[in-house]
Amino acid sequence: MSVLITFLKAVLNALRDVLADPGARSTMVAAIFIYSLLYPQPYVGELVRDVPVVAIDQDNSTASRAFLRNLDASDRVEIVQSVATMEAARAVFYQRDAYGIVLIPQDFEQDLLSNRPAPVAAFGDGSYLLIYSNLMSAVSGVARNLGAQVNYNRLTARGVDDGQARALIAPVTVTSIPVFNPSGGYAAYIVPAAFVLILQQTLLMGIGLLHAGRPLPKGVNLVATPVAYVALYTLWTLFTQLFLPFAYDIPRTGDIATLMMVSLPFLSASTAMGFAVAIAIPWREGVVFFLVVLGLPLFFLSGISWPVESIPAPLHLLALLVPSSSAIPAIVAVDQMGAQSRDVAGTIELQLALTVGYTLLAVLMAWLTRHRHHAAADDGETQQPKTQA
């Protein structure tokens, strides 16, 4: 019992050290609340809506006006201006009052009625993919609907039965169902994944601020200190993966037990990596700089912003040395997709292997550092009598 009490006291002392150090307190406590408040705010709208576009109607016919009315009625784009020439449309576009241009050429209605292709030109800002895809999807959808209506009217005018006409127009019906993200929103996609990386980076920075340039804790503190950090970040994991989805109405289906089965090895691996980094970079500023530079590449290599299958295999294997690279898809799979422990068993094993590997690396580097310091001290003592002589 006394050993347990001593261990718990050491854990509490480690947590007090976090709160006593201004840098660690800001990184490991305050930063989580700040990120939780600010990071999801840009995505609360979930979907990009009403992208402003400018229209050029060179046909000025009933069909062209119907096309533009239907386009403006969609929730994806909004026609903010109608101009007569491409030069005027470019001026609006380059002033950033619009992010796209829709051009309906002359003879649009005549081509439709004459059973000829009726082209519509759409120009979008390709440097902003969300806006560009919204514009192109809206224009393509309206064009398909208008074309289907024209074909339907043509078939029924020839005496074709209503049901048969509809079947001829659309022989295959596709129903799109966004599984695990019913709204198809961006927040449900990006926020849970980003917070896994945020937890790792703040944990690594906090350990660096507390332990950079210092020897490893001794005695019971060698175990109690990492346990304290893992315990603290277990609370942050529950906060970011359970409370935040509830607060921002982000769907989640996973169970807490499976989430903990992935999170605890992930936090352990991150803690062990933090001590290894703190020993390898023995000054606080160097640790923070290294982790800040590393943060964005790690996000891209995690497979969230770009598919893992499209990342070069050697680069992906190298990224797996960082706990978040495999933990992000696993935690998202558990929390958002309802994955079971057997589905993420490989990630759990990898995280445990990283924990052991970084722990051994930290101990080895600490021993080499101490040995080097002792050797330097012995050399100094040996040279001291020669200097006096």
How is this structure best described in words?
- This protein is mainly alpha-helical.
- The chain contains 14 helices and four strands.
- It has helices at about 1-20, 20-40, 60-75, 85-95, 110-115, 130-155, 160-170, 185-210, 220-245, 255-280, 285-300, 315-320, 325-335, 345-389; strands at about 50-55, 75-85, 100-105, 120-125.
- Helix 2 (about 20-40) packs antiparallel against helix 8 (about 185-210).
- The longest helix has about 45 residues, at about 345-389.
- The radius of gyration is 30 Å and the shape is elongated.
- The protein starts with a helix and ends with a helix.
- The model has no long low-confidence stretch (mean pLDDT about 90).
How are the secondary structure elements laid out?
Elements: H1 2-20, H2 22-38, E1 51-57, H3 62-73, E2 77-83, H4 86-94, E3 100-104, H5 108-113, E4 121-124, H6 129-157, H7 162-169, H8 186-211, H9 221-247, H10 256-280, H11 284-301, H12 313-319, H13 323-337, H14 345-388
